Records
---
Amino acid sequence: MKKIKLQATTTFGLEAVVKREIQNMGFENISGSDGYVEFETDYSGMAKANLRLRSADKVLMVIGRFKAVTFEELFDNTFALEWDELIPKNGNFIITGKSIKSHLSSVPACQSIVEKAIVKKLQTKYDIRRFPKTGAEYTVQAALLKDTVTITLNTSGPSLHKRGYRHGQVIAPLKETMAAALVQLSYWNKERIFLDPCCGSGTIAIEAALIGRNIAPGLSRKFAAESWDFVPKEVWQEERKKAYSDIDYDTELKIYASDINAHAIEIAKVNAENAGVDDCIAFKQIPFNKLELMGDYGVCVTNPPYAERMGELDDVERLYRDMGKLFSKNKTWSAYFITSHEGFEKLYGRKADRKRKLFNGNVKTDYYQYFGERPPKK
Ligand SMILES: C[S@@+](CC[C@H](N)C(=O)[O-])C[C@H]1O[C@@H](n2cnc3c(N)ncnc32)[C@H](O)[C@@H]1O
């Protein structure tokens, strides 16, 4: 099968998590930079990456990469790419773009040049003046960085965080891809107790359950490249089949999710049911200060209120103090908190063992990591 280069885009700060996922899937020639990881594979790998990547935003197919400081160079190099092999006569091609530290700084002008070059190339194959754009969607991106242009096609369609299980609104939900990254950045494994005591719509607990059961997060959704003629239809069927056969229905998971808000718990339960993991998670409405830790060597991963977007500052600060008190009672527990509140460590009562800068949407946050004692070897 034809070799292709894919680019998995990520939220800044999550590149290493996505790289590890890509390595674990056995992909080759992995490289990357801020906001993305690239690797080589074939069309089966395209389907596999879309279905299984947990923390990446999108999987783009790299069509070409070249230097351009003039519109002529942008046009000629874009025209030289194999658009006539990729986009059919009725293909709905949409051009997006971005430009950072490049001579060609006007994004609309670059988009227009790229569109003209693609149209001209397609006209070498199809005798047509205006393309109807009534067929499958081909979203082309021209990304300029320091005068290097990377032309990609978005194979995913809507971002991979749209798994399809989340319904109903809670305040400040975490993106599914970020929730999966927080779990993957922790030392949790399916043998250990998992707790999210401020679970909101349940995203972190649900992503932990998907990981624990080895359920590919993209199994319930469609991807843009499934409608493309040049990608064999069988690869999607085969990769879906493999993903289903890899699901581990047998391991009993000990995942607990609670929240002060009854409505959030109702929504979380429905979301877990939609994701097919309601049997793995015990949900409970309970305020944090009434919570007791059950068992040893548990892992808490949580996204408490920050007071920036929700919650009163006094309540939030009291909650952080309560969190420090509870986890200081049992040294075997590990606890992980994502928050933008810069006073978190002081309120919690201890400096984190590790801190990682992350963007939760546009909000600059830190991921505070407190490591408990290691569980005894079995
Ligand atoms: C930022 S939201 C969590 C969003 C969640 N990660 C999601 O994806 O939907 C914070 C949650 O903490 C809950 N919360 C606030 N104070 C609490 C407390 N004292 N005890 C337990 N939960 C609390 C809120 O009800 C809210 O659902």
Note: The chain has eleven helices and 14 strands.
---
Amino acid sequence: MSEPILRVQDIRKSFDGSGVLRGVSLEIREGEVVVIVGPSGCGKSTLLRCINGLETIDSGEIRLHNEVISGRKKDLHLVRQKIGMVFQSYDLFPHMKVMDNLLLGPVRALGRPREEVEKEALQMLDRVGLREKADVYPRTLSGGQKQRVALVRAMLMNPELLLLDEITAALDPEMVSEVLNVVIDLARGGMTMAIVTHEMRFAEAVADRILFLEDGVILEESDPETFFHSPKTERAARFLQSFTYASRRDGAEKQSKNNPQG
Ligand SMILES: Nc1ncnc2c1ncn2[C@@H]1O[C@H](COP(=O)(O)OP(=O)(O)O)[C@@H](O)[C@H]1O
Ligand SMILES: [Mg+2]
């Protein structure tokens, strides 16, 4: 097996004295897709933000290709270039056309030739079904289209690791799958990713491994089959049940008529 790309070792992080990450360790290998799930407020975003240096950690260590990247200030931008991140809200620059948004990082930060990046950007826009949107402003795009552009922008930086934090959480339901399909396509292409999502069917489909985070610790680490069909902890089972309400409601109502304790 290949060496881990990312190695997170016993990291801790507090805000105002309360522990948000309370000793988290994980490894991600090349080409692996790790999905992190857990209840709201359990520390998922903080974990991703610590990994790409948007937050400092109180203790522990984060290594990228065996090189310590936590606790660095001087060359943090070099780390960020190797780790891409896409957030819930589309953070495209509104005053710049789609193509200019895409060129900004690779041309300005990496110093790559404009024409070369432009060609690559068009190919990638094509791949996500947005080739004709290169010359429009972000405000003319739907939320789903903006998130696909945000994914292209992250990929154009050629990251070794891509972090996705609930990238469909702000979207209307009909736009969710067009974005998640792009992520599945990236996974098939071998992109190494850590994904936070509440889309459980997507999680099951895309993940090589599931981490269940609860109150700042990893309670459960499983392959998706095990996690979704026979979770090891009672807490994870309860968490998963909260997602099945809609589809089970009919059955539950029928059952509660027969069984008042329901
Ligand atoms: N910058 C911050 N300052 C203070 N508290 C924060 C900050 N960021 C996150 N928190 C707190 O840390 C906890 C975990 O937050 P977060 O990582 O965003 O959880 P999740 O993404 O799992 O919903 C929450 O209680 C949140 O209020
Ligand atoms: Mg979050």
Note: The chain has ten helices and ten strands.
---
Amino acid sequence: MITLYDYLPSQNAWKVRLLLNQLQLPYQQKFISIFEGEGQGEDFLRVNPTGAVPAIRLENGETIAESNAILVYLAQNTRFLPGDPVKQAQVMQWLFFEADYVQASVATLRHWVLTGKDKNRSQAMLDAKRAASNKVLGILNNTLQLHEFLSGDTYTIADIAVFSYVHLAQDAGLELDDLDHLNRWIDSVKTQPHYLNEVHPYSLDAHSYKEL
Ligand SMILES: N[C@@H](CCC(=O)N[C@@H](CS)C(=O)NCC(=O)O)C(=O)O
């Protein structure tokens, strides 16, 4: 059985939980207390050299880290990742976009706001994150005007990856009301079979106020 190294409030880990659920694959969880420094311990650094969750361990002992790399592995030969090289690369395009742009903007700002770390950041830094987040949301809204899902007409791991933080952008104080295409897509992802309707608050973890 797959082992998922997990931290419940992590939406990067949620992506993996969602796909496992949509694939109906059994797995066990091992929780890593990231804000207490457990990720930086010797044992976990052997699983993921960055010390971050999520990561998975396969039955044969192989490990994979980076949420979107895990999605690619799990989605091989399923309807969540097309086999055609061009279509597959178009899915990858959004996986890289997510890791590069969404995580650095919407996800980071949300983390800061929900754990109170925004109080320790300069106004200039918060303004820059807000501007970057709004740019990301606009790009997504424009793309979703063209087709139903991010990489075309079918729901794939591109949607799973980008949706994980974007549908919670309001937690970061970001405004989605005018982004009709984005809102239509959010509703559509939520109606996919075996959608995982759970969000775990950072308040579950008394250590989440700590800096990483
Ligand atoms: N790019 C990575 C980001 C992973 C990440 O930032 N994970 C956070 C939780 S959402 C974490 O474990 N942080 C602890 C650390 O960086 O030490 C991914 O997509 O998996």
Note: Residues 7, 10, 12, 34, 39, 51-54, 66-68, 99, 103, 212 surround glutathione (CB under 6 Å).
